[in-house]
Write a structure and sequence with these properties.
Helices cover 5% and strands 49% of the residues. A 5-stranded mixed beta sheet has the order 5-24-23-22-21, with no helix packed on it. A 4-stranded antiparallel beta sheet has the order 6-27-26-25.
Length: 289
């Protein structure tokens, strides 16, 4: 994956421990030491571990673009690539026993490519891929309320911190929107070890941190939204390999949903045959832990 150097120290993700190096000379040539050399220390990115709890069937025609729990029910949003005529752009609730999606809204695949969704303040927000258009639905009736436009070149993942909507667009930037007027509140550049973390995809906000799929990889990164730093990573290659073994048509991993009641995370991918229920070490349903 290509990465570009981040110019700002604040964005770079380094921790600085500074001691001033200063020498003064008196008229006799004696020197006094007032400090030490500047010391640059890189804070290491933690490696997360997980345990597999259970797996459920997943629709292998679902080109997953979003996964989220709402009222303790799993919802999935999907896209529809032109070269995969069996796919549809929709979102709905998922029956984990059968893998069937109870459709709440469907887009015309000839006009829109469905992307991430988020529930906030009694509404569902849905992104589309390259049309710079999103849709808002009532979260109870799922009636479409209105369409809106955004400035980002593309729409990818969507989540919420309970106050703002947070979107990814395939770059290293996370854009915060005010849900009432859909104006940009701020944009956070995400970096790992001094380099921009590009290809941020599906998002999930869990206990103060943002978890993001990295497109074309089997990696989830944990982002500190205060700094934009990647502070931890989770490798789910074993699950991707398992899916590929079961269904060779499985594509990239995409989809993170957190169930705050069970304290478990559900992950899947595009055209995967399974949704995996995992417990990530370090995630607690008590955010103070």
């Amino acid at each position: 994956m290509s990465k570009r150097r981040v110019q700002s120290w604040r964005e770079a993700g380094y921790t600085f421990f500074v001691a001033l190096f200063l020498m003064t000379c008196n008229t006799t040539g004696n020197r006094s030491e007032a400090g030490k050399n500047l010391l640059l220390v890189q804070k290491p990115v933690a490696i997360l571990s997980y345990s597999l709890i259970h797996s459920f069937p997943h629709d292998t025609t679902a080109f997953t673009e979003g996964l989220v729990f709402h009222h303790h029910e799993l919802y999935e949003s999907t896209g529809a690539p032109d070269n995969l005529p069996q796919t549809k752009s929709l979102f709905g609730s998922v029956d984990l026993k059968t893998s069937k999606i109870k459709v709440k809204a469907m887009l015309d695949r000839n006009q829109y490519f469905g992307e991430g969704i988020a529930f906030l303040n009694g509404k569902v927000y849905q992104l589309t891929y390259k049309t710079k258009v999103g849709f808002i639905y009532d979260a109870t009736t799922f009636k479409k309320l209105k369409a809106f436009t955004f400035l980002n070149k593309e729409g990818w993942g969507l989540t919420t911190d309970g106050k703002n909507l947070i979107m990814s667009d395939g770059s290293n930037a996370l854009t915060y929107w005010d849900p009432e007027n859909l104006q940009v509140v701020k944009t956070i550049p995400v970096s790992e070890n001094g380099y921009a973390e590009d290809y941020l995809n599906e998002l999930e906000f869990i206990n103060g941190y943002i978890y993001a799929n990295l497109w074309t990889t089997n990696t989830i990164v944990k982002i500190d939204p205060m700094t934009g730093m990647v502070i931890a990573k989770l490798d789910l290659s074993a699950l991707a390999e398992d899916s590929k073994t079961i269904f060779p048509g499985s594509l990239e991993m995409n989809g993170i949903a957190y169930d705050s009641i069970s304290n478990l995370v559900y992950v899947t991918g595009k055209l995967w045959p399974k949704v995996y229920e995992i417990k990530i070490k370090g995630i607690s349903n008590n955010p103070t832990l």
